[in-house]
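Design job #97: recover the sequence.
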């Protein structure tokens, strides 16, 4: 309900309305001026230099005509002309002598032009407000970028009726995305999901409910963002928290995840007031987009078959259930696809014994159900879904059972959902049943055989078949002869013969390490008469059967390329002998380095922590296919000759047999580093690595093992519990007694808080590794962590 602003408040609001462009200082862009993409001087600056207009290279050879904050190291674009049509190097934007303002490609074809309602442009100007204007000789603005926003509003900018913001497709793709924020002609301010790639809308997930009254959204110089009626009365605050424009850069942006956020950035270290020199969010709407979107068509907040959860930074996370993978690794909102063959619907091969369920508490995909049952038991709900080949997921809550079919939409995980999702997946040790096709094939063979037996050519065919069978078995009996320098197509990775690696390791003599699934030996291989020391990992039990499957897994691992990952140099696949050849890490494992008699340098420990975090961030965020390590621990962090930390054994989990575990619990991982969801039938996502990293980070900070049974005080035995108790009681100095370097580091407390966030029992509360990196680097403030053990589950 609107309320009338007092005369004084109304005067203040009107005083702080956007000033006219004619009142701002500017540097004229004269008629005939032009900018060329990839030209060293391809920008027009505002008088203070705080904003720039020109070309930004978005991808190699692709340029965006844009406006951006020019004094911030992080490129922050606030407006663009050609967001859906990047131009090539050599393209130009020009203010012609007749007043036309156009962007053209290198061939002179027009890509974009400013829409002028009147003629008479005599100059252009980039203003200190972030507004680019075209004006006549009387300084009357004839066109301005503020009237055609893309996804961002700036202080002194208004959003009038009929004008909208459209989110970007992703963080790095500035083309139009999936969400719209618009002040409708009826006065209602609304956030919609967009029927991508069309411009029509699907579902309103936030609104001010001001139909008939909303007139203008104002972003004033004091940093308030609010909706007013035509008479000036305040209807609704979009962002009620303000910041001084003299001390902070500000922007409000409809981000690619559909959330409108108000950001501030300190203009100088002295004015930051303790805020990190980075963009910080002051307000955002809606508060929980995962629970806000429930549309009848489309994939919801995160895409089909995926689920949305809110992290510690209030950012929505899009994840796939166990047994599913993201459709497009470069688009986290593209949805998820099952990694298994669908259930056979033939009555003779329903495959009910080939499927089981993965339980996800507080999870639902609303509006995807096709059948609903009341007053039933959970085991009955499970069985009725298992017996139904169309059922992909069953939801059981308070004695009610919903059966869901593909594609699943509006997925969300939230404590307010209740109940549990029963996700049907194919067991890993079975394959799809093709008995029907096999039966058909057998029938065909019987018919062909009958015809052949009655034919005069049968004896000739029988003789030819015998010769082919003999040749086939002869080749199978011959030893494999692999080319010594054969590589996988497109990869710089060598294929070794088993005998060659046997000789390189002197008969597998010098053992470097041993695990439940492999043994590592030191070896020396030759390439062009150059000897290279390597580590040869001999795998004991493999999940894959056959050379092609093993090669596919090796190919996936070898495509990784990061300075904090141990490099895979080659492989061997001969019969039962499957080996991997890695670069040799001369300083052994972090376990040997960290838990020696003398305490390693504090700053060296931090370098190792940062290196490990960077490696994990690469595996989770930057690989073509996301890799979850599942066994982060000091023994799997190796150190090279300069003590640079590198993660080893990444991707090997996919090669192991399903019954191979590192502990007696039947789960993958190592006791003490294993995330709690392994024990609770929760989905295993990249957050399991975040948990393990949190334990590892505490070990690096405190320079002690995660479990010390011989301590004098019993409460100090488990490092994670001890660390949180010290944090809660304000006695964190006890964690690093006598470690002056650590105690004197002002960031010590922050690092402990980050580790506590990582070891939250609720995986939804843990940050992603990308966010962990931002927290560690100081680009994002570290919130106060809750008790890690506060997660309660009914399982």
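Job complete. Output follows.
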């Amino acid at each position: 309900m609107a309320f009338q602003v007092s005369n004084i408040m109304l005067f203040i609001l009107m005083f702080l309305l956007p000033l006219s462009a004619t009142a701002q200082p500017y540097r004229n862009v004269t008629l005939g001026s032009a900018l060329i993409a990839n030209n060293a001087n391809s920008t027009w600056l505002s008088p203070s230099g705080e904003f720039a207009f020109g070309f930004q290279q978005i991808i190699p050879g692709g340029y965006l005509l844009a406006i951006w904050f020019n004094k911030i190291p992080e490129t922050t674009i606030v407006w663009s002309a050609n967001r859906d049509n990047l131009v090539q190097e050599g393209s130009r934007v020009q203010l012609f002598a007749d007043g036309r303002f156009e962007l053209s490609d290198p061939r002179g074809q027009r890509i974009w032009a400013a829409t002028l309602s009147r003629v008479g442009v005599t100059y252009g100007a980039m203003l200190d407000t972030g507004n680019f204007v075209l004006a006549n000789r009387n300084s009357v603005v004839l066109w301005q970028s503020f009237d055609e926003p893309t996804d961002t509003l700036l202080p002194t900018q208004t959003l009038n009726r009929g004008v909208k913001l459209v989110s970007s497709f992703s963080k790095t793709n500035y083309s139009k995305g999936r969400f719209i924020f618009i002040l409708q002609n009826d006065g209602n301010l609304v956030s919609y999901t967009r029927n991508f790639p069309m411009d029509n809308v699907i579902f309103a997930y936030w609104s001010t409910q001001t139909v008939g009254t909303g007139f203008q959204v104002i972003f004033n110089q004091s940093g308030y963002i609010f909706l007013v009626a035509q008479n000036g009365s305040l209807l609704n605050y979009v962002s009620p928290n303000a910041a001084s424009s003299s001390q902070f850069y500000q922007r409000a942006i409809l981000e690619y995840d559909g959330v409108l956020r108000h950001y501030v950035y300190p203009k100088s270290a002295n004015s930051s007031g303790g805020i990190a020199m980075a963009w910080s969010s002051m307000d955002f709407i809606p508060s929980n987009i995962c629970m806000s979107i429930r549309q009848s068509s489309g994939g919801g907040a995160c895409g089909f078959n995926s689920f949305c959860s809110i992290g510690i930074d209030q950012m929505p996370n899009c994840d796939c259930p166990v047994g599913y993978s993201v459709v497009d690794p470069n688009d986290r909102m593209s949805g998820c696809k099952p990694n298994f063959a669908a259930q056979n619907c033939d009555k003779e091969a329903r495959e009910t014994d080939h499927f089981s369920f993965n339980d996800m508490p507080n999870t639902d995909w609303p509006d995807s159900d096709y059948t609903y049952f009341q007053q039933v038991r959970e085991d009955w709900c499970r069985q009725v879904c298992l017996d139904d080949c169309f059922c992909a997921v069953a939801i059981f809550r308070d004695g009610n059972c919903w059966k869901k079919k593909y594609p699943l939409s509006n997925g969300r995980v939230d404590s307010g959902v209740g109940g549990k999702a029963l996700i049907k997946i194919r067991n890993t040790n079975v394959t799809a049943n093709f008995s029907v096709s096999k039966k058909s094939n057998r029938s065909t063979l019987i018919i062909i055989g009958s015809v052949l037996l009655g034919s005069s050519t049968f004896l000739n065919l029988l003789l030819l078949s015998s010769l082919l069978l003999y040749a086939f078995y002869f080749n199978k009996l011959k030893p494999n002869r692999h080319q010594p320098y054969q590589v996988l197509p497109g990869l710089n990775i060598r294929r070794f013969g088993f005998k060659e690696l046997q000789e390189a390791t002197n008969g597998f003599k010098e053992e470097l390490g041993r695990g439940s699934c492999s043994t590592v030996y030191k070896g020396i291989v030759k390439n062009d008469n150059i000897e290279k020391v390597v580590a040869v990992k001999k795998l004991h039990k493999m999940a894959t059967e056959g050379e092609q499957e093993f090669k596919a897994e090796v190919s996936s691992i070898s495509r990784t390329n990061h300075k904090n990952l141990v490099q895979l140099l080659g492989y061997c696949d001969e019969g039962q002998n499957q080996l991997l050849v890695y670069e040799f890490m001369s300083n052994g494992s972090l376990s040997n380095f960290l838990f020696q008699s003398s305490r390693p340098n504090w700053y060296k420990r931090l370098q190792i922590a940062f290196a490990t975090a960077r490696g994990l961030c690469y595996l989770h965020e930057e690989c073509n296919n996301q890799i979850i390590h599942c066994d982060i621990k000091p023994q799997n962090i190796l150190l090279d000759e300069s003590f640079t930390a590198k993660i080893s054994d990444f991707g090997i989990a996919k090669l192991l047999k399903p019954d191979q575990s590192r502990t007696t619990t039947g789960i993958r991982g190592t006791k003490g580093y294993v995330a709690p969801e392994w024990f609770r039938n929760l989905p295993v996502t990249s957050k399991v690595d975040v948990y393990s990293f949190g334990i590892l980070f505490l070990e690096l900070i405190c320079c002690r093992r995660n479990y010390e049974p011989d301590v004098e005080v019993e409460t100090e035995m488990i490092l994670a519990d001890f660390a949180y108790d010290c944090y809660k009681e304000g006695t964190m100095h006890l964690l690093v007694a006598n470690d002056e370097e650590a105690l004197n580091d002002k960031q010590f407390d922050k690092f402990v808080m980050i580790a506590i966030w990582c070891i939250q029992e609720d995986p939804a509360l843990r940050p992603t590794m990308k966010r962990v990196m931002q927290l560690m680097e100081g680009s994002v403030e570290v919130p106060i962590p809750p008790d890690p053990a506060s997660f309660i589950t009914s399982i």
